[in-house]
Amino acid sequence: MVGWNDTPEWERTAAAAVYEQVRAFLHATDGNAAKLTRTQKSQFVAACWTGQIHLRIPHPKPSYIAEWNDLPQWQRETDADIFERIEHHHATTG
């Protein structure tokens, strides 16, 4: 596993952008996006990440922009976990 400081700059910037997209979504819905299912949360994060990939990589590998249904289960769960971590942070800090 690569540590945050060893993660490429473009990837850290993309992750920060996804964080802001989820945070903005939670804010825009007055926190009600927390009512989404884990699947919906995972799909939202995956779509945000795919957008960042297209922004930063002119010709991404197909695996970088795979449809949500084609992602491995661990990636789907990780994306839902990411949403929920941001959700928790948003709930405690506003």
Description of the structure:
With 94 residues, this protein is an all-alpha fold. It has one domain (8-93). It contains 3 helices and no strands. It is globular and about 35 Å long.
Index terms:
94 residues; mainly alpha; 3 helices; 0% strand; globular
Give me a quick take on this structure.
With 94 residues, this protein is mainly alpha-helical. Helix content is 64%, strand content 0%.
Layout of SSEs?
Elements: H1 9-28, H2 38-56, H3 73-93
Helix pairs in contact: 1-2, 1-3, 2-3
SS summary, helix count? 3
- The helix-and-strand class reads mainly alpha
- Based on Cα principal axes, name the global outline: globular
The description of the largest β-sheet is: none
User: What's the gyration radius in Å?
Assistant: 13 Å
Distance between the termini: 31 Å
Tell me the domain tally: 1
Strand content: under 5%
Low-confidence stretches: none
E-strand count? 0
The ordered string of helix (H) and strand (E) elements is: HHH
- What helical percentage do the residues reach? 55-70%
Mean pLDDT: 93
